[in-house]
Design brief:
Elements (H helix, E strand, L loop, with lengths): L9 E5 L6 H7 L5 E8 L22 E6 L5 H19 L3 E6 L16 H18 L4 E5 L5 H16 L14 H18 L7
Parallel strand pairs: 1-2, 1-4, 2-3, 4-5
Length: 204
């Protein structure tokens, strides 16, 4: 895509529950692709995706990892979107946006260890679609990745497609409660990510 369309700034936003180690490795040394990944604690698997993995060479600063605690819920996840992801994307001004749409962060997923609701995914895409509209004339592609609960994957995908197409879609689902301890731990990690990324981006 970079060569075919003559692009210089592509964003990959990875929302799969597991860190995209292969994607990170491919683009780790380039500034033509900004890779941002929000994922569960990668200590057990895949062993990559930690805060200090920030790219190398020309890619220094163009690799952003937000490793969240197991069972992170909507509140902390969306705070990471607001305070880390959105300001970096705005500053980078991508010419094209790609979303690695792993849906295994849903609270009912048997493999992922996050605790997100369908409403959270809807809000993620509200933000992403708005950014694409303002920054790159709506050039946004979303690719389905993980998601292992058939009962919910279709509903989440429908909510995402509705948001991308500007169609109304009602969701009758409550976000599961998250303990204060997990929220504080997640907020601490967001603070640590911001501290590292302030070396490269204007983040409050």
């Amino acid at each position: 895509m970079l060569k075919k369309f003559g692009l210089k700034r592509i964003l990959i936003l990875d929302i799969d529950a597991h860190h995209g180690n292969g994607t990170q490795e491919i683009f780790y040394e380039t500034d033509e692709v900004l890779y941002i990944s929000l994922h569960q604690d990668p200590c057990i698997f895949p062993g990559t995706g930690f805060i200090d993995e920030i790219g190398e060479g020309k890619g220094l600063g163009y690799n952003v990892n937000v490793p969240l605690p197991f069972r992170t819920g909507d509140h902390v996840y969306l705070r990471a979107m607001r305070e880390v992801v959105t300001p970096i994307i705005r500053e980078y001004k991508p010419q094209f946006m790609l979303v690695s749409a792993g849906l295994d962060g849903h609270y009912a997923d048997p493999i992922g260890n996050l605790s997100l609701s369908t409403l959270c995914y809807q809000e993620i895409y509200e933000t992403t679609v708005n950014l694409a509209s303002k920054l790159c004339e709506g050039k946004l592609v979303s690719v389905l990745e993980g998601g292992y609960n058939p009962k919910f994957v279709g509903k989440i995908a429908a909510a995402i497609i509705a948001k991308m197409s500007g169609t109304s879609y009602s969701i009758n689902e409550k976000a599961p409660p998250t303990s204060k301890h997990r929220e504080r731990k997640g907020e601490k990690i967001i603070g640590e990510v911001k501290k590292v990324q302030r070396n490269f981006w204007r983040i409050n």
